[in-house]
Write a structure and sequence with these properties.
By secondary structure, the chain is α/β, with parallel strands linked by helices. It has a single domain, classed as Carbonic anhydrase (Beta-carbonic Anhydrase, Chain A). Helix content is 41%, strand content 19%. It contains 6 helices and 6 strands; from the N terminus they run H-E-H-E-H-E-H-H-H-E-E-E. It has a 6-stranded mixed β-sheet, sandwiched between helices.
């Protein structure tokens, strides 16, 4: 990491917080993780990288459109060469639970033995929500990665930008390929 930091962006509290954290630690930062603010996901990421000097910035994915490019630009200017961005399957608001209409009842047997159609409809709805969240994540990254700072930095051999997508109901990570727009299971090689 460079010895001089980029000037703080006073209008962005996330940059100021990140800068303060790094300055207080007075240690070299090997990796910056910018992750949706799910404590379980953040803990999994931190546990996986315990041997490196890592700074984690929990940033609600709903704020990425207005804050992520500034945070990334600051990190690049600060000389942080390894950045991991972790999105989340719960970033897109899902439809509210269905409510019963006044006077409508559901028999006990319907709850115990739902029809195949209801099960398939539920699975389909979950898959549509997951697909929407993945699409949203890909669009957010596409917009952010167009910045001049990242375009110039990506050509450097000592810089790496990794992107992961967390599926909350399965506790699994997918690796997102910025080059071809695909999501693949994260497996050890």
């Amino acid at each position: 990491m460079s010895s001089t930091f980029a000037e703080p962006c006073s209008t962005n509290p996330h940059v100021a917080s990140l800068q303060e954290t790094i300055a207080n630690d007075q240690a070299k930062v090997d990796c910056l993780i910018i992750a949706h603010n799910d404590p379980q996901m953040i803990q999994l990421l931190a546990d996986a990288m315990e041997e490196e000097s890592v700074v984690v910035l929990p940033l609600c994915q709903a704020e990425w459109d207005t804050n992520l490019s500034q945070v990334l630009a600051w990190a690049v200017d600060a000389g942080i060469n390894h950045i991991l961005i972790a999105g989340h399957s719960d970033c897109v608001s899902s439809a509210p639970p269905k409510r019963l209409k006044h006077g409508q009842t559901i028999s006990h047997s319907e709850w115990l033995f739902p029809s195949t159609d209801r099960i398939l409809a539920g699975v389909s709805r979950c898959q549509q929500q997951l697909d929407a969240a993945k699409s949203h994540f890909a669009n957010q990254l596409s917009n952010v990665l167009k910045s001049d700072e990242l375009q110039n930095k990506e050509c450097s051999d000592d810089f790496s930008l990794q992107t992961l997508f967390y599926i909350s109901n399965g506790g699994a990570f997918l690796k997102y390929s910025v080059c071809d727009g695909t999501f693949n299971p994260l497996v050890r090689s």
